[in-house]
Amino acid sequence: MTTTEPTPAIRTPVQRAAMPLAVLTGLFVVAVTMRGPFVAVAPAIGEIQRDLDIGSGTAGLLTSIPVICFGLATPLVLVLTRRSGINASVYIALAIMAAGILLRSAGGLTAALTGTLVLGFGITIGNIVIPAIIGRDFPGRTTQVTGYYTAAINIGALSATSLGAPLTDRLTWRGALAVWVLIVLIAAVAWAFAVPHTQERLVRNPPAQETDTTPLWRRKLVVGMVLAFAGQSFSYYGITAWLPTLLSDEQGLTAAQAGGSSAFFQALALVAAFGVPFLINRGVSGRAALLLVCACWISLPLGLAFAPSLWVLWSCLGGFAQGGGFTVIFSVVVARAVSTDDARRMSAAVQGIGYVLGALGPMMVGAVHSATGTWNVPILVIAGMIVLMAAGGSAAIGSRTSDTLSGRRTPWKSGTRTTDRRGR
């Protein structure tokens, strides 16, 4: 199948050099806002409970509502982004996030929960459109840029975790959470500088994009990536919620020491965000990269079950895996999409189901622990989800030796591409 190339806008050498850097910077700053505003609740949770006079279960909604929203709001977001366009959708996401952040800090429990819901909806929009932007504006470099995106998400989460307590002490929990509106405004400015350099603005009269009309549920790639991301999300949120408690119970660590385990787990995601693209750029296939990530992932629950004294090692390997899993899954989705719209639809399907199951992870792990009175059974449930991730993802990616994510072939060419539909 051949396609007609759109006529590109004429760019000077300076514009050609600035284009990827401007867009990459804009995406990076926007991505920092994608987890930090709701992760910031955790360090302030004690003060929030005292001020609003609520229990732990209700307080937990302030962190679980956004994750549930990531899944359930996806169909509505898909309609919104189709009508507004990709670039404008980023502005819409940031505006909604800013409104949610301010509302959350403005009143009592109702305002806090409503603001959290609004915030979750705004972040959901970003979740859907950013992979599409990466595929559209960085053809041939999707894995590397997805790694930067993953790193930025984790930098935002780490910043919220490390700065949350000091800010709460100085500004109260309302001020500490409201500070994130400044980061969102900075992201909007960064995106405004990026927009003139995006393909949506540079390409004049783009042709109608190629599409795959096969229903998503009948596409092998989509089904497999849904299973892979479900395993990734379930494991990530299950471990994040219960690892400190498990180490406190099983290893006798203090609250501070157990909390430090989360730092290992989160920080190693940054290593994977850059390390996995490095491996892929050296010729490692997408399937091999996924299986490597899953091997590191499963070492965490199995290691805690059979060699718990080495928890630092298992936390580091699991942290590497949780950053690498996100990078590999969405690199595959973007690289196999036939157009920006196809990437947006596949990303929505994968995240919609994956995040719903991810939100169930903490509840299921906690319920199994309560029912069995031990931690081995619930963490083996997590191990089972990682096996699902490996099986679903590797089957979807397939074993085609020519199918690498290294950038040696250009996934999309100015909005369109020639595609081989085998395995789809």
UniProtKB/TrEMBL annotation:
Residue intervals passing through the bilayer: 21-45, 57-81, 88-106, 112-134, 146-165, 177-195, 221-243, 263-281, 288-314, 320-338, 350-371, 377-399
Record's bilayer topology term: Multi-pass membrane protein
One Pfam assignment: MFS_1
Biased composition (Polar residues): 399-417
Keyword flag Flavoprotein: no
Keyword field contains Transmembrane: yes
Annotated region described as Disordered, given as residue ranges: 397-424
UniProt-annotated location(s): Cell membrane
Start and end residues of each Major facilitator superfamily (MFS) profile domain: 19-402
Keywords of the record: Membrane, Transmembrane, Transmembrane helix
Entry protein name: CynX/NimT family MFS transporter
